[in-house]
From TrEMBL:
PROSITE patterns attached to this UniProt entry: WD_REPEATS_1
Domain of life: Eukaryota
Species the sequence originates in: Salix koriyanagi
Protein's name according to its UniProt entry: TRANSCRIPTIONAL REGULATOR STERILE APETALA
Annotated signal peptide: none
Residues spanning the membrane: none
InterPro entries: Quinoprotein_ADH-like_sf, WD40/YVTN_repeat-like_dom_sf, WD40_repeat_CS
High-level lineage: Eukaryota, Viridiplantae, Streptophyta, Embryophyta, Tracheophyta
Length: 371
């Protein structure tokens, strides 16, 4: 019963993406599917995917709230004049989002990261990176965020990585100075536990970089995943593009990454060794914005509308469904709020957050009525 509730939640995300796509927002609407569905269906509890320390009651009620649409909506606000360059409209474009237990972190095109308190829904603080020469309109844009209870780590397209303490207003420290001309664009950045992982595009043989997140020392550089996307990687510095690729770290210390045509998995404990690789060229490609990871599973959708949740270690399918085939969907509900063009979306087992093109940031709390 609990498993069925979790699976039904994935259809909410599927139809949100599909309805947006029908309104013409094809590329950006695809963000919606993966992030929400993995937050729930990817963690579907079965005998081999335990609930951990969560109670059965709470773990069941929250997915039921997702299924029925019981959520409290909040519009999050910050001072639009609080930017480095008030004359630059790109400063208000939110490019990526990340959730912790306490905060929503929002990364903007000017390199700023704003934190919002999930309890008060108020803007808590803003972190701004140390800037150097701009190498394109979006070279300073935030491309990835790692947030924990105590620390915020964020990267920008030009390759800079900054570290900040979450609970004070000290300026972030630059942990790595990007060298975009010799590395390519840092198109995605993620981490888990002791690992930081960056996905680059622009130069052959340099798709991945791995660091020890504790010592901040580089551990690995290499990989050809993004070689075919080299030109697109350079374009990300100057214009809004389709997603070049996405990289995620599983709870089993492995990396799963994809572009529109390929997916690779490699072991962080044996760096450089690819565990598996899959080509999606003959399946109309991967919807990169719909790819995500939850614990030991990942979700992937191809251009034919076939989506599946798989185990990263074996590629065994946990569940599968279609996202664009008429008659094989279960429409549940739509959010009543008008989002417009969606730039980014993130979700966990309680919250869904979205950043829209009109500079609004939306938060839905599916657990508030359980407290």
């Amino acid at each position: 019963m609990v498993r069925n509730v979790y699976l039904s939640v994935s259809y909410v995300a599927v139809h949100l993406a599909y309805r947006c796509a029908q309104r013409g927002e094809q590329s950006r609407a695809r963000i919606l599917f993966g992030t929400v569905s993995l937050a729930v269906s990817g963690a579907a509890p079965t005998s081999s995917m335990p609930l951990g320390e969560r109670s059965i009651s709470t773990a069941t009620k929250r997915p039921q709230n997702f299924r029925s649409g019981r959520a409290v909506h909040f519009a999050l606000h910050f001072d639009p004049a609080d930017v480095d360059d008030p004359t630059n409209p790109d400063s208000l474009i939110c490019r990526c989002l990340a959730l912790s237990d306490r905060y929503l972190a929002c990364g903007f095109a000017d390199g700023a990261v704003r934190l919002f308190d999930l309890t008060t829904r108020l803007h808590a603080r803003t972190f701004r990176p140390q800037h150097h020469d701009r190498l394109g309109r979006f070279s300073r844009a935030v491309s990835g965020i790692i947030i924990t209870a105590a620390r915020l780590v964020f990267a920008t397209l030009d390759g800079d990585i900054h570290v900040a303490a979450v609970n004070n207003n000290a300026n972030p420290r630059r942990a790595r100075l990007g060298e975009v001309l010799s590395d390519g664009a840092l198109v995605d950045f993620t981490g888990r536990g002791r690992w930081w992982v960056g996905l680059y595009a622009g130069l052959p043989g340099r798709a991945f970089r791995v660091w020890d997140g504790i010592t901040e020392e580089p551990l690995f550089e290499g990989g050809s995943l993004t070689d075919p996307e080299a030109v697109m990687g350079w374009h990300t510095l100057t214009e809004l593009t389709e997603f070049v690729g996405r990289v995620r770290v599983t709870s089993q210390e492995s990396v799963v990454a994809c572009t529109s045509s390929r997916l690779v998995v490699f072991d962080l404990r044996n760096l450089g060794v690819i565990l598996r690789e899959e080509d999606f060229t003959n399946r109309r490609g991967i919807l990169v914005g719909s790819f995500d990871v939850c614990n030991e599973a990942y979700v992937i959708a191809d251009g034919r509308g076939n989506a599946s949740v798989r185990r990263a270690d074996t590629s065994e399918e946990v569940c599968g469904f279609t996202i664009e085939q008429p008659g094989r969907q279960e429409y549940l509900y739509s959010f009543g709020e008008r989002l417009g063009e969606v730039n980014a979306l993130v979700a966990d087992e309680r919250h869904v957050a979205a950043a829209s093109g009109d500079t609004n940031i939306h938060l839905w709390d599916f657990g508030a009525q359980l407290e």
